[in-house]
Predict the 3D structure of the following.
Amino acid sequence: MKKSLLSLFALFCALTAVATLRMPAYYGNHMVLQRDVPVVLRGTADPGKRVTALLGDRKATTKTGKDGRWQISLPAFAAGGPYTLQVTAGKEVLSFDDILFGEVWICSGQSNMEFRVRSAADADAEIAQADYPRIRSFNVAQAMNNKPQDDLAGEWQVCSPATVADFSAVGYFFARDLYLRLDVPVGFINTSWGGTDIESWMSMEALDGFPKYAKQLQRMRTPDFETYIARTTAKRKEFQDALTEEPGEPQRWYDPATDRSDWGTHHVPGLWSNEQLAEIDGVVWFSFRFTLPEECRGKAAILNLACIDDNDKTWVNGKEVGETVGYDVKRVYPVPEGLLAADNEIVVKITDTQAGGGIYGTDRAVFLAVGDKQIPLAGEWKYKIAISNEAYGYVDYGPNTFPSQLFNAMLHPFIGLPMKGVIWYQGENNASRASEYYDLFPALINDWRARWGADFPFYWVQLANYMQPDTVPSESSWAELRNAQSATLALPHTGQAVIIDIGEANDIHPRNKQDVGHRLSRLALRNDYGFDTLQASGPVCIAVERQGDNLVLTFDEVAGGLTVHDKYGYLCAFAVAGSDNIYHWVQARIEGKNRVVLSCRGIDNPCKVRYAWGDNPDDANLYNAAGLPASPFGITLP
């Protein structure tokens, strides 16, 4: 009996012993590894342990360091498989089956990259036809961390009608195009999270170069960061209750008679950025006084307040004129006849629930329209904080609350893993701060490349057309963000898929992801896989010159010639401004294979030209002979 009990105890110890040999989750059954480059295998085991890896007929051994980490490199494999990988450390064994070698791409960004095949156009047909066992997807489980991680959660899935519905639609259609052209296995790693800022995907070191984030980064680096987050999360209900009981409306802060002598000042439009407003959520009231010329008094008008993050209620001279919920909705409020006087006041109550808050857009987008006259409202507004999350010790802890959290948890574990390149679909969340994207986006690309030690291809999707079209040339933060994306093409080995023609006015997530993947794949096929004659870009304006009353635009990437997608042959969406900086639609015509002539008669000193500049330039119709749309642009002549 005693011997039996000892045997059972020994068996129990063996079964409950914690294995120390581990590899990150992306090493698993059905994985795709990058072909034609040395194979990198890594993991952890007991310190000083000898680790051996056998992949196919290739074998290598190493010893773990004092920290238990190990890494093994094996000679490159050509495209093919399947192979089996076996890794041993003493008596411990890890074994992975059905391993293929082919092309590996990382797919990252926000919701339009996360967007699943099941929601794409013609989803039922696409799912039924998705029998491509040599296409594999690794979906990264969403996670946040204030420190760079070595591992994450996720698994490889073989493409089939049973699995493809949950694949990233852009990732899948991109991978499918590569597979059908190259006839080699394709694996794509989907690491994305909807509604996230670019800063969430940047390393803390990359953001150290931007003073704006110093306070947040310092807090993230403190030893008690996790305790801080737990404590503030517990304050959530107290803060949310306070939002519904804010003092401004009961105390009639919208009344022009309100004493505003103790209110601060903040430039509108502009997200909350001064010292008192930075990083807060809550309710903040804004006020602006202005004088109207006699001919405008008493008339009906339209109040334009660009966009407001997140929600607002607005008064003119003490009378409520509008209320909107949603951070990406343009505020256009009718002002009734008889309300406007000589001296007037606009009051806006802004409720910001998370991330940045405020009235955002360009100065020209904030105005009062009285007939054909525009009264500018941009400038220094007064403000007063009614409710602040800081007063309750509450921080809404999400992926945008602190920067770098998704980089740390969902991207950092892949650094050093051999792969071909990156496709990226993000920017919607940064449109309200479009001017910052000119610096943030190239900083992200340069940092990722530096960490991999390679200038891998980096291709992205330019923002689609979205929201309601403008009837007159207008300022647009979305257009500015697109321009920032185009400016990033100055970096080597980059490319941009223009989709200004396939967006949807009422849906920030256009369902036509097939063309998105197709246009991205054209970039990779031409630049990285030898398809030199494949046209991968739409027309790009490379020069503007004056010729009498006309401006003549020269385009590259015309693929045999410029074309117009209009049954009458009319070019649309071109606007020109003169010395008064007011843009006007102009007539445009194609001349020859690569030029567009703009008629600028009546415009004094035409010096600025824009094409498809707006949230939703749905009439943009300039293409090349390959059927690819021209990229939106704004150019100022010297």
